[in-house]
Amino acid sequence: MYWLAAHTATAPWRRALWLALLVLALEAVRTLAGRGPGWASVSLLVGGLALCLTAVRSTPAALGLGWDRLPERLLGGLGLAVVLLLPAAARWGGGPTLGPELALAAIAVSVGEEIAFRGVLFSTLLEVGGPALAVLGSTALWTLAHALAHPPQFLPAVAGAGLLLSLWRWACRDLVGPVVGHVLADLAL
Predict the structure, then answer these.
(1) Residue 59: left (phi > 0), alpha (psi -120 to 50), or beta?
(2) Residue 12 CB contacts under 8 Å (≥ 6 apart), including other chains
(3) pLDDT value at residue 38
(4) In this structure, what are the phi and psi dihedrals at residue 160, rounded to the nearest 5 degrees?
(5) According to the model, what pLDDT value does residue 95 have?
(6) What angle do CA 144, 26, 163 make, to 5 degrees?
(7) Max Cα separation, the chain?
């Protein structure tokens, strides 16, 4: 009986570890596949969908999704997008916009990353170690996942964005705002 109690007590840690490794592996494969000529949109789209699949066994409530307070959640997402875009807007000198194919892929990967990092991973880490682990752990894993895709000098901005979105997720118990903010920011960049 002692073994069963000890085994079930460590199960959430084990699940969190495997989930973190899975999400990091999906992001690494997506990033590396996207470097091939003509594969950027496909890798973003397929990678985003694969990240969404990490939530198969989760309830919408556990992920921070739902229809309650939807107008406030959407408005919060707009606010998050503005904050995420402030540094880029300060140094923006104009540039090309995304074509429809790349825009759809950007939406898919943004939604997938939010579901995986601030949805499934966040709720698992929250169960394992409380709010501090959920916020800091999901932010650290998010930053690590972006290390292959971005130059090192950009990683503090990635970490800041991850921290902002994780803090929103915790404080508002909401994933809609981070999804909307992330999608709008990625489409604008």
Answers:
(1) beta
(2) 124, 127, 128
(3) 87
(4) -60, -45
(5) 59
(6) 35
(7) 66
Tokens describing residue 91: 């140094």
Measured distance CA(106)–CA(47) in Å, rounded: 10
Distances 25 to 40, 62, 136, 170 between C-alpha atoms, Å: 17, 23, 20, 25
Dihedral sign for Cα 139, 92, 90, 107, please.
negative
Q: DSSP letters of 101-147? A: HHHHHHHHHHHHHIIIIIIIIHHHHHHHH-HHHHHHHHHHHHHHHTT
Helix, strand, coil percentages in the chain from 3-state DSSP, rounded to 5:
80, 0, 20
| pLDDT value for 4 | 38
* CA of residue 162 relative to chain centroid, distance: 8
Q: Give the helix/strand (H/E) hosting 48.
A: helix 40-52
What's 152's DSSP letter? Answer: G
Instruction: Give the 3-state secondary structure of residue 59.
Output: coil
Decide if 177 contacts 84 (C-beta within 8 A). no
Q: Domain residue spans in the chain?
A: 2-188
Q: Read off the DSSP letter of residue 63.
A: H
d(Cα 146, Cα 186) in Å, to the nearest integer?
Answer: 14
In the chain, which residues have pLDDT < 50? Answer: 1-8
